[in-house]
Amino acid sequence: MNSSRSAQRAVIQFLRAEGKHASQIYRRMKEMYGEQYLARYTIFQWCQRYKAGRVNIKDLPRPGQAHAVTNSATISAVDELIRQNRLIITREVAVELWISKRTVRHIIHKKIGYDKDCAQWVPKHLSENQNTARMGVCLTQQFLH
């Protein structure tokens, strides 16, 4: 059974159109969807909306900044800044590109796939050659100290 929110809202809308009360709809949803049913408050809220005449089961757009900042141009700009200076910090990238530090961190870690290692940005998943080279550098550093 499809337990997505929109599917459950459609069921609530249908049962509400049949004249069922919100508490009856809640019990029925609990039986039908098991542990994946919407919260009681949410079911009652949607019942009120459908009673008031709402017909759409989708969420209305909410105010706030859209996520248009995380586009391919921004991702490539962040990647280019990191490749130019591996020691750059997220605050400097954010100031340079006029985006939030949180967005910069999201792009670096999730979109590009870099991690901070010894104050430098490096790819999270290294190839076998890169792993061998890194191990060699670490061993020589260990012997020097």
UniProtKB/TrEMBL annotation:
Domain Mos1 transposase HTH: 7-53
PANTHER family tied to this protein: MARINER MOS1 TRANSPOSASE-LIKE PROTEIN (PTHR46060)
Name assigned to this protein: Mos1 transposase HTH domain-containing protein
Species this protein is from: Araneus ventricosus
